[in-house]
Known about the structure:
Layout: H1 8-13, H2 24-36, E1 39-44, H3 60-65, E2 73-78
Antiparallel strand pairs: 1-2
Amino acid sequence: MELKDTDLFAIYSGGPRIKPSWQEEDIQQFRQQLLAARLRYAVCHPDAASIMTPRPFTSPEAARQAMADASDRLGVVLVAPAV
């Protein structure tokens, strides 16, 4: 697993660009690490400068389903506890 690989997000989100050289164990480990990082997903406006809804999604798939059309963008949010 190479952390500089440009397909990391596609692998995590289950996208179609998964590289065959990655072992299933590597993919599952990477997904678990990202889940543990408390990442959430948002639907962004086409310019990706602001979000469309205040509701964060727990998976990229859920956020994609909430997109109005192909010009919407997927945003990643790191949820951190209040200090």
